[in-house]
Write a structure and sequence with these properties.
Blueprint (H helix, E strand, L loop, with lengths): L1 H15 L2 H23 L11 H5 L15 H26 L11
Length: about 110
């Protein structure tokens, strides 16, 4: 049982700590930093800024499942969406780069 837990943790870590997943999380963080700067430092007439929508777009489609929930739950959906998409990208990256190259090819040397 401990080996299965260790294996799940290792799989989770390997899926999250690779260039594809970390690059995606960096993009999400940059978008939210831009949203923060736009909200705090840029003067808009009334409530004219639509910058906050981009936080949901970069974490879609998972974050859209949380949009209609009350209170702060839509922001929780953004965090969950970012994590789900990062794990999916990381798993795809591991699948694409994890297979041995040249296996089964004849050598012409």
């Amino acid at each position: 049982m401990a080996a299965a837990q260790r294996s799940d943790g290792t799989t989770f870590r390997r899926s999250l700590l690779n260039p594809a997943a970390l690059g995606y999380l960096a993009v999400v963080a940059a978008v939210w930093a831009w949203i923060g700067v736009d909200t705090l430092l840029v003067s808009h007439s009334g409530d004219a800024s639509m910058a906050g929508v981009w936080g949901f777009f970069v974490t879609a489609p998972t974050s859209f499942l949380f949009v209609l929930l009350p209170g702060p739950l839509p922001l929780v959906g953004v965090a969950v969406g970012a994590l789900v998409q990062a794990l999916a990208l990381g798993a795809a990256y591991r699948w694409a780069t994890g297979r041995p190259r040249g296996h089964g090819r004849a050598s012409h040397a």
